[in-house]
Design goal:
mainly alpha, about 0% strand, ARM-type_fold, transcription, activator, eIF5-mimic_regulator
């Protein structure tokens, strides 16, 4: 084509253009049959042959159920024998995979369908909680079975908690007798620490609450729990899971009051639980009062508005005045940043407290309230060392502003003080108390002369 001279020489600066076409196959010694054996790329991927030992076993809870029920039938109702059978079977059966089935059988006698009915049309095994005698002693024995099983197979702990949460959601599907047994068992398991109080969240299900199932179940549960432990231990467990302030949610919204809760549980024989909830409600109301009070003070709301609000809260939450004066004092003292120098803080305190005297005076209409305020001042001055020398000045200020009167001050000085800084504060008050006593004697003598 180019002749004898061959193709024209390429310029050094000309770009090299590579052909995108594949070059024709070169003649090699390889036969066509060998070329056919070369694997071509494919989009379908490759299939690998799975070894038999790697194949996942099919999930078959029915077969597992049959094994457990057969074993329970052979052991009979002897719960010691049941515990031994369950202990030994864990080495042969897959408890980790079939935990829900296992616990369904031990509680209800067979696998449960959604709603709480038995999944199969089969006879319930007699070796289960629901078929047992409705007695606390029997539930104690079953609790031991669960304890031993979970101690032996620690990985079942989470599965058991999930099972109990599920059972509580199924309460409507169980008979009253079955609910009672489950409530007693749950109370015992909460008391011995096998279960965490967080499982009680299931009782706040809207349908259970609406139909009164949650409250009725809670009565049996708390009776069983408090029977094992005291109310303080129960309260501590509830506090750990932030459930100590939620018990009133066992009732519908229109019945969530301290009065209704107290009446319901007191009549059911749980007076200590009723008193606990009432106290919790009062504590919550006090915290809310202090928070709102501090906000009102920081905004600079008029004292008359603050006093009106506080008195309404006192009435609504049944908070006594001696408690309120303590809240008001704490709120007043927390609204300012105090000087760190002892010689300056007393002057700052007098100026600040003089401003708030009308507010404090509104809640010292009782002798006990005045005495409470004196104790609060004593404790505050002791706990905040820069105020140690300011105690007497604060008391005199409040006396002049008619926040405090003679009798409570004299009583505090004589025998109503606390140990904190006692010697320092009594020494500070010595001259003022002497003056008060003389003034009181003069008033009495003048009154006698007038008669």
């Amino acid at each position: 084509m180019y002749g004898a001279a061959g193709p024209p020489a390429r310029s050094a600066s000309a770009p090299v253009v590579r052909s995108l076409r594949r070059p024709p196959p070169q003649a090699t010694g390889v036969s066509f049959m060998n070329n056919q054996k070369q694997q071509k790329p494919t989009l379908s991927g490759q299939r690998f042959k799975t070894r038999k030992r790697d194949e996942k076993e099919r999930f078959d809870p029915t077969q597992f159920q049959d094994c457990i029920i057969q074993g329970l039938t052979e052991t009979g109702t002897d719960l010691e024998a049941v515990a031994k059978f369950l202990d030994a079977s864990g080495a042969k059966l897959d408890y980790r995979r079939y935990a829900e089935t296992l616990f369904d059988i031990l509680v209800a006698g067979g696998m449960l369908a959604p709603g709480g009915t038995l999944a199969d049309a089969m006879m319930r095994t007699p070796v289960c909680v629901f078929a047992a005698q409705d007695a606390l002693e029997t539930m104690h024995a079953f609790a031991q079975v669960f304890n031993k099983l979970i101690r032996r197979y620690k990985y079942l702990e989470k599965g058991f908690e999930d099972e109990v949460k599920k059972l509580l959601l199924f309460l409507k599907g169980f008979s009253e007798s079955e609910r009672n047994k489950l409530a007693m068992l749950t109370g015992v398991l909460l008391a011995n620490g096998t279960l965490n109080a967080s499982i009680l969240n299931s009782l706040y299900n809207e349908n259970l609450v609406k139909e009164g199932v949650s409250a009725a179940f809670a009565v049996k549960l708390f009776k069983s729990w408090i029977n094992e432990k005291d109310i303080n231990a129960v309260a501590a467990s509830l506090r750990k899971v932030s459930m100590d302030n939620r018990l009133m949610e066992l009732f519908p919204a229109n019945k969530q009051s301290v009065e209704h809760f107290t009446k319901y549980f007191t009549e059911a024989g749980l007076k200590e639980l009723s008193e606990y909830v009432r106290n919790q409600q009062t504590i919550g109301a006090r915290k809310e009062l202090q928070k709102e009070l501090q906000e009102q003070m920081s905004r600079g709301d008029p004292f008359k508005d603050i006093i009106l609000y506080v008195k309404e809260e006192m009435k609504r939450n049944n908070i006594p005045e001696p408690v309120v004066i303590g809240i008001v004092w704490s709120s007043v003292m927390s609204t300012v940043e105090w000087n760190k120098k002892e010689e300056l803080v007393a002057e700052q305190a007098i100026k600040h407290l003089k401003q708030y005297s009308p507010l404090l005076a509104a809640f010292t209409t009782q002798g006990q309230s005045e005495l409470t305020l004196l104790l609060k001042i004593q404790e505050y001055c002791y706990d905040n060392i820069h105020f140690m020398k300011a105690f007497q000045k604060i008391v005199v200020l409040f006396y002049k502003a008619e926040v405090l009167s003679e009798e409570p001050i004299l009583k505090w000085y004589k025998d109503a003080h606390v140990a904190k800084g006692k010697s320092v504060f009594l020494e500070q008050m010595k001259k003022f108390v002497k003056w008060l006593k003389n003034a009181e004697e003069e008033s009495e003598s003048e009154a006698e002369e007038g008669d």
